[in-house]
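Subject: Sanity check before I submit

Could someone independently write out the structure tokens for this chain? I want to compare against mine line by line before I put it in a report. The sequence has 292 residues.
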Amino acid sequence: MAKFLQTVVLISLLTLMGCGSSRSAPSDSFQAPIQAIQNKGSDTMVNLALAWAEAYTAQHPEVSIAVTGGGSGTGIAALINGTVDIANASREMKAEEITEARTKGVEPVQHIVARDAIAVVVHPDNPVDGVTIPQLAAIFTGEITNWREVGGQDRPIVLLSRESNSGTHVYFLEQVVRQGDKESEALFSPDTLLMPSSEGISNEVRQNPNAIGYDGLGYVTPDQKTLAVARGEAGPYVKPSVETVDNATYPIARPLYMYTNGQPTGIIRDYLERIMGPEGQAVVQELGFIPL
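---
Independent answer below. Compare away.
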């Protein structure tokens, strides 16, 4: 009998607890996100994407935006595989990537969201002030190996590059190492040190007076020296800046992209419109990139 009474009391308590919880009003301080946006790709763009996401979710707390890097190739692969809503890329999608996407039922749509200059950076103590595109091609293919060959000191050149999944790597390979020649098969010198991030290039340049690398303008810090770049020996030699990208005098500039599967709708459309509007483009300028 005692055991029976204990069971009755337990059931009664559970019933009362259930009734009590049904009468409790949900807290106004918690509201689960009604939609999550997955955003992945370019390391050049990751700080921009994080800043855009933070600004948007501050005004739309019901939306969750997850931003990760990994490189343009990683973001594009995720879009093709259907695991992200937006892929960030510092290069255009390749024809074979678009073909692969379509075979999987994905229709990539390109959105230009900002612009960037690729700065050529060296240690501040390096006396070289400017180089031409052909000289850069010779340096990064290993044809030129000593700084004295381009007006510097008798020191070996240490080459720094982003890894091959980086859109910045691909753009620099195509437009600088291969000088825009689609028939060229030139490659980075096998002695090139491949860095996993923009910060990796910056850190190595700061501590190595023989190093040369390249990076998005938004990642260049005052303790690095940017070289003026000319298309040829006749010049002009131009340093990267908002102004020189705007007037098209700096020769290594590019758009920055976001890709979606089809034309965006709903909250993703609203998010992209905010990015390309005045608020989003103000963030672009604050972080050292070039607004549309």
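---
OP: Matches mine. For the report I'm noting this point. The two ends are 81 Å apart (CA to CA).
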